[in-house]
């Protein structure tokens, strides 16, 4: 049940359930079903209708919105996206997250931090969630290209949306939703001034994309390149904790 407390001391109860379909995707799924039925019933073209019906199921699956159990530790930074960690690099945050935007709330410092890039394929859940709780200070949309999202330059050249969250203790964290080769729209669920809980749904990117997370200074990642993340559940880092980790692919 949504909102129920689950922990590692045996409290709570969990069972498997079909994930719901986000309202943003229901119209696309219903359109696909209607087209399929037109070919199957009106034209009796089964060779076209049945493949389209399978495609309709794929559309509904793309917009699935499963419940997640969000770790509530004050130090935990949570993955904003389902997908594959493809890059971990030391970079400066985007200018849009640094410069004075006139809001009265300062952006991120102009100094190198660790960026974790999570690539989402068309088979991943595409609902994005906030890595920390706090107040949304910036939502900056930038038009751009639609090159493959796993390229490093996609962070600067693709269509993207920057989001800056500030906690009550002043800690700021920025992350960026990046459209990919197939993606054609970034859909935000939040705006500046909104107060969000850790792991809350903040938007989606249609049909394959990437999310970059800029860790606070003095914080090292707790995930590895090649590792898969689960939005709202996987701990990317612990604020202020240093120390690199290694893994073996097997």
Helices and strands in order:
Elements: E1 20-21, H1 23-42, H2 46-62, E2 64-65, E3 76-78, E4 83-91, H3 95-98, E5 113-120, E6 127-129, E7 134-142, H4 154-157, E8 160-166, E9 172-179, E10 186-188, E11 195-196, E12 201-205, E13 209-214, E14 228-229, E15 235-238
Antiparallel strand pairs: 1-2, 3-15, 4-5, 4-14, 5-13, 6-12, 7-8, 7-11, 8-9, 9-13, 10-12
Helix pairs in contact: 1-2
Oligomer status: single chain
Low-confidence parts: none
Number of β-strand runs: 15
Radius of gyration, in Å, reads 19 Å
How many discrete domains?
2
Largest β-sheet summary? 8 strands, antiparallel
**Secondary-structure arrangement, i.e. CATH architecture of the largest domain:** Distorted Sandwich
- What structural class results from the helix and strand content? alpha+beta
Biggest sheet strand line-up: 11-7-8-9-13-5-4-14
Name its key features.
Glucose Permease (Domain IIA); eight-stranded antiparallel β-sheet; 4 helices; three-stranded antiparallel β-sheet; alpha+beta; 2 domains; 250 residues; globular
Structure description:
The structure is a single chain. This protein is an alpha+beta fold and 250 residues long. The protein folds into two domains: 20-65; 76-238, Glucose Permease (Domain IIA) (Distorted Sandwich), CATH 2.70.70. It is 18% helix and 29% strand. The chain contains four helices and 15 strands. The chain has helices at residues 23-42, 46-62, 95-98, 154-157; strands at residues 20-21, 64-65, 76-78, 83-91, 113-120, 127-129, 134-142, 160-166, 172-179, 186-188, 195-196, 201-205, 209-214, 228-229, 235-238. The strands form four sheets. The chain has an eight-stranded antiparallel sheet. The chain has a three-stranded antiparallel sheet with strand order 6-12-10, with no helix packed on it. Strands 1-2 form a two-stranded antiparallel sheet. A hairpin with a 5-residue loop joins strand 8 (160-166) and strand 9 (172-179). Helix 1 runs antiparallel to helix 2. The protein is globular, with a radius of gyration of 19 Å. The mean pLDDT is 88.
